[in-house]
Design brief:
This protein is of the alpha/beta class. It has three domains: about 180 residues, Aminopeptidase; about 50 residues, no CATH class; about 150 residues, Lysozyme, CATH 1.10.530. It contains 13 helices and twelve strands. The strands form three sheets. Strands 4-1-5-8-6-7 form a six-stranded mixed β-sheet, sandwiched between helices. A four-stranded antiparallel β-sheet has the order 10-9-11-12, covered by helices on one side. It has a two-stranded antiparallel sheet with strand order 2-3. A hairpin with a 2-residue loop joins strand 2 and strand 3. Keywords: Hydrolase. InterPro entries: MurNAc-LAA_cat, N-acetylmuramoyl_amidase_3. This is N-acetylmuramoyl-L-alanine amidase.
Length: about 425
């Protein structure tokens, strides 16, 4: 018998927030307490995450994150999938979700639910059907528990208590044992000895905590070597001692996303047209909107060139989408967002950069057109090099590549005759488009 236990949310995704609590922290604690209880009763356990990170280490990619949870259950050949969540929305009580009624999942849900109701003294909100990816895509029976409401003071007061979270873990364990026809055995101590964890801290910010020191060291090295961070440490939670430190070469520089631009429209145009003589003239939109947002817009042009292949669109995003930054194109053939005009697409691209680079609100009068603006961890990437693994996954050297393209554009020399030639070429493109000449 094998169960895949999935602590809801994690990493970039905090889940529900309320009363000073984050769902991702509560679900992880309950599941770490649940695992040894099930193992004591002879049930093997797969945890989709054992620290504060998104399974598969996806960043701002919910589809990839959820897919990694499903893959953990499938590859581990689990007999049952159990997602553990906390509800939000101002209600109270406990419920269990399934993809449909009449199957093994509903049986499991009805085994677990009474224990949860009893331990919390909560209202019984019942077993409900809901089209959730981890319930829909798993081949084994799958349930998802919603344990109280994080934004309701009475529920949150219980969830804050470690002893109550231990009781929640026991309630889950009893229901799961009932499902498998096992008589639940109480461990000698239901208060597990606190185990050591290892924090992965990159550029001064904790990104995850793992139970294995070796795994934590691997994550730090991977992040630094791929350019996602300039330095990192592994810190032991029991005494806050740094057991491992690792840094990139001291001469590695950072390139801010925000700031004044020195490159010219003409340099960007000339570079782009040299590589695609039929490229539409969207550079002025970058300058206009980039200056309003305070972004070094020339680097955004370089990123657009990288994302679109000099506006040739050789990937899944197509020209008529006006999606110059690949916003929402998260892999597996997903084409991402579409925008009504070229300027709107440019503005969305710049707004997405703004969201990553700063915690400031958009300037007054600027309409938010980026559909993923609020999904970004605001201010997490003030420099281009920090977009590695965030804007693009895995994204090794992504930011450095944008900086390299910018450097090539900045080398363009514009003379009066060259500028006239560029304008003539642009005029010819427009003429061909409208008059078919």
């Amino acid at each position: 018998m094998k169960v895949c236990i999935d602590p809801g949310h994690g990493g970039y995704d905090p889940g529900g927030i309320g009363n000073g609590l984050k769902e991702k922290d509560l679900t992880l604690d309950v599941c770490l307490k649940l695992k040894p209880l099930l193992e004591f009763n002879g049930i093997s356990v797969i945890l989709t995450r054992d620290g504060d990170y998104a399974p598969g280490h996806y960043e701002n990619d919910q589809k990839g994150d959820l897919g990694a949870r499903v893959n953990s259950a499938e590859l581990g050949k689990a007999d049952l999938f159990v997602g553990v969540h906390i509800n939000a929305g101002g209600g109270t009580g406990v419920e269990v979700l399934v993809i449909s009624t009449g199957g093994r999942a509903e049986i499991a849900a009805n085994k677990v639910l009474p224990y949860l109701v009893q331990v919390g003294g909560w209202a019984n909100r019942g077993v409900k059907t809901q089209n959730v990816m981890v319930l829909r895509e798993t081949s084994m029976p799958a349930i998802l528990t919603e344990n109280g409401f994080i934004d309701t003071a009475t529920d949150a007061a219980k969830l804050k208590e470690p002893n109550f979270r231990q009781a929640l873990a026991i309630a889950h364990a009893k229901g799961i044992c009932d499902y498998f026809g096992i008589i639940y055995k109480e461990a000698i101590s239901t208060q597990p000895t606190p185990s050591v964890m290892y924090r992965v801290i990159l550029d001064g910010k904790q990104t995850m905590a793992l139970s294995s020191q070796e795994s934590a060291i691997t994550e730090v090295k991977k992040a630094v070597d791929s350019g996602q961070a300039l330095g990192g440490v592994v810190q032991r939670t029991t005494d806050n001692i740094n057991v491992f430190e690792y840094s990139a070469n001291s001469n590695v520089s950072r390139t801010p996303i925000m700031g004044e631009e020195t490159i010219t429209i003409e340099q960007c145009r000339q570079f782009l047209l040299k590589n695609n003589s039929n490229a539409p003239d969207i550079i002025p939109f970058y300058k206009k909107n980039g200056e309003i947002l305070g972004i070094r817009w020339g680097y955004a042009v370089a990123q657009m060139i990288r994302e679109t292949g000099y506006l040739r669109y050789t990937g899944v995003v197509k020209a008529d989408q006006n999606n110059f930054g690949g916003i929402g194109a998260v892999g597996n053939g997903v084409q991402g967002a579409s925008f009504s005009s070229q300027e709107e697409g440019v503005l969305a691209h710049l707004e997405h950069l703004f969201a990553y680079a700063t915690t400031q609100p958009l300037p007054a009068g600027v309409q938010k057109v980026d559909p993923r603006f609020d999904l970004v961890e605001r201010g997490s990437c003030p420099n281009w090099e920090e977009l590695n693994g965030r804007w693009a996954v895995p994204g090794n050297g992504y930011g450095q590549d944008v900086v390299r393209i910018y450097g090539e554009m900045a080398k363009e020399t514009i003379s009066d005759s060259e500028e006239t030639s560029i304008l003539r070429k642009i005029s010819q493109i427009i003429s061909n488009y409208f008059y078919g000449k």
